[in-house]
Amino acid sequence: MSAAAPQTWDEFMEGVWKQNPTFVMILGMCPTLAVTVSAVNAISMGLATLLVLIASCGLVSMMRKVTPKEVRIAVYIVIIATFVTAVDYAIQAISLALYDALGAFIQLIVVNCIILGRAEAHAAKNPPMPAMINAAGMGVGFTIGLLALGVVREILGAGTLFGITLFGAGFQPWVIMVLPPGGFFVLGGWLLLFSWMARRKQRALTVGSDHA
After folding, report:
1. Number of domains the chain contains
2. What is the pLDDT of residues 126-161, one digit of tens each?
3. For the residues of 172-193, what is the DSSP string, one character each?
4. CA distance 84 to 78
5. pTM of the model
6. What pLDDT, on a 0 to 100 scale, did the predictor assign at position 4?
7. Strand, helix or coil at 43?
8. What residue numbers bound the domain in which 88 lies?
9. In a designed cystine with 135, which of 57, 97, 153, 187 is the match (CB 3.0 to 4.6 A)?
């Protein structure tokens, strides 16, 4: 295995786990809470954001040496908006029902702080390949976060998963899960779980060092 392989893996995993946009950095909360009423909506928004992240960060990186510092943010926004428009038209062509379900949140990817933050903090300072790998990790991490909420909300709010019925006719859906408060409750539950896991890991490390 080459020396670059571990570094590449670390670049990717930074966004998937260590700096997960949803559960660690708490970014992109508008689409996270708004579109995750179903697993299909969640994974669709996540993949759309992933594509825009990879493409825009790659182009920002390639243009980093010729972009004047004074107008860099404007340039980033134009680049991101271009790819968002392409993704927007692609979703319309694939499924109008999905496009209607995601609504204005597709266009709002332009101002998603995850993408602009990656462009400014990483892509503008690194070569294209590391920038795109890091962006892919962030996109995958964001998709995982959306899917984690979408799965729980769809199962409890509709009794289905990806449109497939899971329970019998006697199942009583939790209506609150398909309403805005449901997004906050599920997000809070996931954050509590990860916080508990982090504290448990820290206690185990502390106990291990004390015994050593």
Report:
1. 1
2. 999 999 999 999 999 999 999 999 999 999 999 999
3. ---GGGGSHHHHHHHHHHHHHH
4. 10
5. 0.90
6. 59
7. helix
8. 8-162+176-206
9. 57
Euclidean distance between CA atoms 21 and 144, whole angstroms: 10
CB under 8 A, 24+ apart: contacts of 85-88: 87/48, 87/51, 87/52
Is 93 inside a domain boundary? yes
- pLDDT, residue 5, reads 66
Whether 212 is in a domain gets the answer no
**Residue range 23-77, pLDDT digits in tens:** 988 888 988 999 999 999 999 999 999 999 999 999 999 999 999 999 999 999 9
CA distances (Å), origin 211, targets 160, 198, 199, 202, 204:
48, 20, 18, 14, 11
Q: Is 35 part of a structural domain of the chain?
A: yes
Q: Specify the higher pLDDT residue, 198 or 48.
A: 48
- pLDDT of 95-108, one tens digit each? 898 899 888 888 88
**Can you tell me the distance from the alpha carbon of 110 to that of 144, in angstroms, rounded to the nearest whole number?**
20
Place of tokens 């019925």: 165
Give the Cα separation of 25 and 9 in Å (integer).
20
- Spatial separation of the C-alpha atoms in residues 87 and 80, rounded to whole Å: 11
Answer yes or no: is 17 within a domain. yes
